[in-house]
Amino acid sequence: QVQLVESGGGVVQAGGSLRLSCKASGVIFRINNINTWGWYRQAPGMQRELVASITVGEGTDYADSVKGRFTISRDNARYTVYLQMNSLKPDDTAVYYCNGRTNFLDYWGQGTQVTVSS
């Protein structure tokens, strides 16, 4: 199987930055079957939403609310996906989840809390 572990969350003041990391481990050929990596977030009382995604072809997509502030990237050699978050706002407060998607399966991490104070 595949395990995803997020790190890098924390408390930051508005305008600050954080970098989230998602490290994949497990069966290598299963990790290599992942064709899209994504970062999602879920605020209290809200549905989980897609924040950013990156494909194996390095195509990226972002939610309108984070465009120009967040950047998703991958380090294939380290099986790690990053989310650089700049100019953070209180509305960015949520639990952030890493997702790896194959043609048939979704893998999820346990989430990391990001809190932005005003």
Largest sheet: 7 strands, mixed
Question: What does the oligomeric state look like here?
Answer: single chain
Number of strands: 11
Distance between the termini: 40 Å
- Which residues form runs of ≥5 with pLDDT under 50? none
Q: What is the residue-mean pLDDT, rounded to a whole number?
A: 96
| Fraction of residues in H or I helices | under 10%
Strand composition percent: over 45%
SSE series: EEEHEEEEEEEE
- Determine the structural class based on helices, strands and strand pairing: mainly beta
Task: Sum up the overall morphology in one term.
Answer: globular
Number of helices: 1
**Radius of gyration from CA coordinates:** 14 Å
Describe this structure in words.
This protein is mainly β and 118 residues long. Helices cover 4% and strands 55% of the residues. It is built from one helix and eleven strands. The strands form two sheets. Strands 2, 4, 5, 6, 9, 10 and 11 form a seven-stranded mixed β-sheet that branches. Strands 1-3-8-7 form a four-stranded antiparallel β-sheet.
